[in-house]
Amino acid sequence: MTLRLRTISRDEHLAFVDSLPSASHLQVPSWGEVKAGWEPESLGWVDDRGRIVGTALVLYRALPRVRRSLAYLPQGPVIDWTDADLGRWLEPLVEHVRARRAFAVKMGPPVIVRRWDAAAVKDAIADPGVRTLADVAPTATDPVGLAVPERLRALGWRRSDDASGGGEHGFAAGQPRHVFQLPLFGRTLEEIQQGFNQQWRRNVKKAEKAGVKVVRGDLDDLTAFHELYAETAARDRFVPRPPEYFRRMWRALAAEHPDRIRLYLASHDGDTLAAAIMITVGRHVWYSYGASTSRKREVQPSNAVQWQMIRDAHALGADVYDLRGITDTLDESDPLVGLLRFKAGTGGEAAEYAGEWDLPLNSALYRAFRLYLGRRG
What we know:
- The structure is a single chain.
- The termini are far apart.
- Helix 7 crosses helix 10.
- The chain is α+β, with helices and mostly antiparallel strands and 377 residues long.
- Strands 7-6-15-9-14-13-12-11-10 form a nine-stranded mixed beta sheet. Strands 1-2-3-4-5-16-8 form a seven-stranded mixed beta sheet.
- A hairpin with a 5-residue loop joins strand 2 and strand 3.
- It has helices at 10-18, 31-34, 87-99, 118-126, 143-154, 189-195, 198-210, 222-236, 243-256, 301-315, 337-344, 363-375, and strands at residues 4-7, 39-46, 52-62, 69-73, 102-107, 112-117, 140-141, 158-159, 178-183, 213-217, 261-268, 271-281, 284-292, 320-325, 349-353, 357-360.
- The protein folds into two domains: 4-111 and 143-161 and 354-375, Aminopeptidase; 185-318, Gcn5-related N-acetyltransferase (GNAT) (Aminopeptidase, 3-Layer(aba) Sandwich).
């Protein structure tokens, strides 16, 4: 089958994504409207019969004072990654973005390489001799995931080392290599809850007994969400996104599909204590952003929010509930281990993606770009 690449319309792009069991929410057309400062483009691979068989949302970001751009495909492209000949997919993409004056391409193949079940993660955290997930034998490996890195290296791609797991700030780009996922397919809610660890089950019951109420919010409720989010950022020492980012996300995703984005808020006696954003594409549901206050932690509002989102994801027919990024560090002194422990309490599994990969098209500009990222920390 001969493939050719062309620019496609938003409707064509969305129709292809909607035909799949799932695709990353970072590869739907609306995500291009969320990323201010990036110029989006929808591309499609077309077969001999004129059918679209793969898509990509490409985000272009121009270098300061230079008419050249980084071409970034977060968790994409959406192609057949099982194909042993990845060149017939990626070479037309490279030529296209080169013509658009890209100095480099960055992409994140949506391919999982290894998985560790919750028991393996729990044992690893408790073992002082284990420092990272890489030191732990995986409970499952994926042959396709293992093959993709070697195929990319043969095509001249190199693994990024600036994708540290935390989204973008300014020019930096990167998605987490390690995530935590809760499988839902073929399981009842009772079976899912039985998979929670004892602390999780106890906390869900505490929230119910205390009378914590979880409701769905709307655009106007993003103000309450952001207040909690800003408090969370100050407590956990990260730079929060501005309120407009979340309003833009809501408008763009909600306009694309009525169930693409949901906001959940947990309250106790009228006091909003926790909130979270959920995103759905096909049968894949993501816990995208979460926030909470330090007040009334004893009523366990964060567990209440998560349990409601898990139940709703199950009702939507989701195959997986994705709690997104985790650290691969298992050192107890690392503050992110607490977040890993919280997510592992769901009884799901840690998963490692193939990582993000770069292809420099202009070596001098690419080196300058890497230096720029390094100076920004």
